[in-house]
Amino acid sequence: MMVVRTTFLTSATREHESKPDILDVASLVQRALSGDSAAFESIILRYERRVVSLAMKLLGKGDDAQDAAQEVFLRTYKYLHRLNLEKSIEPWLMQMTVNVCRNIGRKRQRRLNTFLESEAADAPTASTSGDPYMDVVEEQERQMLRKALNGLPEKERIAITLRDIEGLSTAEVAEILNSSESTVRSQVSRARVHMKEAIDAMMEGKR
User: Fold this and answer.
1) Is the pLDDT of residue 106 over 50?
2) Which of 14, 88, 128, 137 gives the lowest tally of CB atoms within 10 Å of its CB?
3) Could you tell me the domains of the chain?
């Protein structure tokens, strides 16, 4: 059995890199299916940053995100033969990441509305404005956004995470979630409304 070796990244910041060429990746997949471990590790290196980034947003904690990413790539190797080489591998990986993150949450008996609880919420935030007062305000805004996001129903939270935070198109989100574009648009729209209502209520409570 192939040993999956990865160097997982802990940063949840999405890296804007050019998407790997489909034909190039298809060649790597074919080589991996033939037993070429180096080819499979090349696939991991191309996509690990993307998988860990999404897992961090859905699970919040670095250790959980690394566990999820490891499971995603183990499943990738197991089911690689099912991949349609004429299509991009990325939506398939994103769908698998969402499913793995859901399973991790359930196995650990955590409700899915705890997704995106970040350890960073308790850590000091580096000053970006140079103004201590503004830094406090910005941190309070981030905490309110996290709280509003955590309070969303599962489907709305995942849809808006993929659409607004990950920056995927409606069509891409629909493919990942095995849903229709109209359903995704509805979920994202409701999520935005619910988040605004939650934030407005929190702001009102501060007055």
Assistant:
1) yes
2) 128
3) 7-110 (1.10.1740.10), 120-207 (1.10.10.10)
